[in-house]
Write a structure and sequence with these properties.
This protein is of the alpha+beta class and about 280 residues long. It has helices at about 25-30, 65-70, 105-110, 135-150, 165-180, 180-185, 205-210, 250-255, 260-270, 275, and strands at about 1-5, 15-20, 35-40, 45-50, 85-90, 115-120, 130, 155-160, 195-200, 220-225, 225-230, 240, 245-250.
Length: about 280
């Protein structure tokens, strides 16, 4: 028997695991309500089955299956959508027989409590994690797909299980470091607390937020694991933290005006702890 991940088109109907006989093609067809079409997924490698004539027959749009397809098959991103119910199995074995859906994907969709979106910039080899957690895999996939569609400099995304309390630990660490700065610790309007921290999900948003106002002491913006805390009332002196150290005070607006801020942020994100300490980024 094969374990299939079934993704109904109706969002009110939960995704489920279903056992299938690999020789029972009629059962495969019954799940999608017609003739079968197969699309390839990547990371992990898998096969998505859908109704070959779903759009021609006017079957309803399947947002969850489409989000999975666009996240796991970049070649079809923005090119095709899924209409009707769909299901996922593993790639065929060496005999050409279907296999069960990858355990990695089953664990992610059915046995994970919280999710994190990883993004890969154009030309980058590594993926970087956004700190915003999601309680549902569909929300995480939808957000990831939205990011990669909105920002051309992002070339790929991954959805992963969130390590426990990663975001909370970072904010607590930044809060502690910020309070070691006398000016920041003395902030009263408003005081410097966990509520001072605002996440920016792209470099462009990071830049935009800094330029929106003359921010007060303790205002904090962070992108991935890079944190900027304002040290001067209505000024532009940002205590810069990464790798658990406050290593720099950055004046951001001149960099933004010269078009150099985004490249600086990317260098900071790529720098090691030693490079940050030595200001060699």
């Amino acid at each position: 028997m094969l374990t299939a991940i079934v993704i109904p088109a109706d969002p009110a109907e939960p995704a489920r695991l279903e056992q299938l006989d690999k020789r029972d093609v009629d059962a495969f067809r019954a799940l999608v309500g017609g003739h079968l079409q197969v699309l390839n997924l990547e990371r992990p490698a898998a096969s998505m089955y859908l109704n070959d004539e779903g759009k021609l027959d006017g079957l309803p749009f399947n947002p969850r299956a489409t989000a999975l397809l666009w996240a796991h098959n970049p070649d079809l991103r923005n090119e095709d959508v899924i209409a009707g119910d769909a299901f996922i199995l593993g790639v065929p074995d060496r005999h050409g027989d279907d296999t069960s859906a990858p355990s990695e994907l089953i664990d992610l969709l059915f046995h994970t409590k919280r999710y994190r979106v990883l993004v890969q910039g154009e030309g980058d080899e590594k993926f970087y994690g956004h700190l915003r957690p999601f309680d549902s895999w569909f929300e995480a996939y939808g957000f990831g797909v939205h990011l990669v569609r909105m920002f051309s400099q992002l070339q790929d995304i991954q959805i992963v299980a969130e390590p426990d309390d990663e975001r909370t630990k970072l904010i607590r660490e930044w809060l502690r470091i910020g309070k070691e700065n006398p000016a920041i610790a003395a902030a009263t309007d408003p005081p410097f607390t966990v509520d001072s921290f605002e996440e920016c999900f792209t470099v462009e948003e990071f830049e935009e937020r800094i330029t929106q106002a003359a921010w007060g002491i303790g205002t904090t913006f962070f992108h991935l694991d890079l944190c900027f805390i304002q040290q001067v009332e209505g000024g532009d002196e940002w205590l810069t933290i990464r790798h658990g150290i406050a290593f720099e005070s950055i004046t951001a607006l001149p960099l933004i005006e010269r078009g150099e801020f985004a490249s600086l942020v990317r260098r900071l994100l790529a720098a090691s702890k030693e490079q940050c300490q030595k200001l060699e980024y």
